[in-house]
């Protein structure tokens, strides 16, 4: 570790990653935003899924001020967030074969919808099977992952494949294997993960692209406003009434 304060080092590392994503993923971000805009225009629904800490970026898209009202969370019991007790159970469930198919078969997803699958490693059975099964249902899949894991780790799915191998589009977060940006000669393990910061920013860039793409086509993007600004609740009520058949987090 250099002489610079660790806080500054971490922020610099996160900024460098964000710049890489901005410059190296620009085409993929544009394509993902267009795919979601196409889905909205054609009457499809939008869903996001992530397990463990990857769920944080998925949840940041749902019922979000300034975000698309049509983005729904595809929840898998026991793996959403880190409130599962005991915590290692969530990690174990990500490796269970057949769980993704059971979830999708009992979800509202249908042909013509779009699903964002967020998995940093993309190596576990759950995200791999989620992508496979969703595409078999006619759902468009956007994978958000670190492609580096596919060359530096082994898949935990029986096929030997990764999430990136079963998507219509892939967004690479450029996070290094291990998700730790800093080291210190007195600390025995690397530390300071940046995947949540980078993945959330990457996805919000996609949402911004979706909204502006719809607007450029003459379609008002179904955006939510903050409930803490005057008129926000009335605005959101109008959007939810107009798109109620495509919003599932109200029930």
Automatic annotation (TrEMBL):
CDD domains, A to Z: SIS_RpiR
What name does this protein carry?
Answer: UPF0309 protein RM641_13165
> Which positions fall inside the SIS domain?
36-220
Q: Which family does it belong to?
A: Belongs to the UPF0309 family.
The highest taxon in the source lineage is Bacteria
């Amino acid at each position: 570790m250099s002489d610079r304060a660790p806080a500054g080092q971490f922020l610099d590392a996160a900024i460098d990653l964000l710049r890489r994503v901005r410059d190296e993923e620009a085409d993929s971000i544009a394509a993902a935003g267009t795919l979601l805009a196409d889905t909205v225009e054609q009457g499809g629904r939008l869903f996001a899924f992530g397990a463990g800490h990857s769920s944080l970026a998925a949840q940041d898209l749902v019922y979000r001020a300034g975000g698309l009202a049509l983005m729904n969370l595809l929840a898998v019991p026991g793996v959403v967030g880190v409130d599962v007790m005991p915590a290692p159970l969530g990690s174990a469930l990500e490796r269970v074969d057949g769980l993704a198919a059971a979830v999708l078969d009992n979800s509202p997803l249908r042909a013509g919808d779009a699903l964002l699958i967020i998995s940093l490693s993309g190596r576990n059975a759950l995200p791999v099977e989620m992508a496979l099964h969703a595409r078999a249902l006619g759902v468009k899949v956007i994978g958000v992952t670190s492609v580096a894991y596919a060359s530096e780790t082994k898949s935990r799915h029986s096929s030997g494949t990764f999430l990136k191998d079963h998507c219509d589009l892939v967004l690479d977060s450029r996070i290094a294997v291990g998700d730790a940006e800093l080291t210190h000669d007195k600390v025995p393990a690397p530390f300071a993960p940046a995947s949540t910061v980078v993945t959330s920013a990457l996805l919000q860039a996609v949402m911004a692209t979706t909204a502006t793409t719809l607007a450029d086509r003459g379609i008002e993007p179904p955006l939510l406003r903050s409930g803490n600004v005057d008129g926000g609740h009335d605005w959101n009520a109008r959007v939810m009434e107009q798109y109620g058949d495509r919003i599932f987090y109200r029930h």
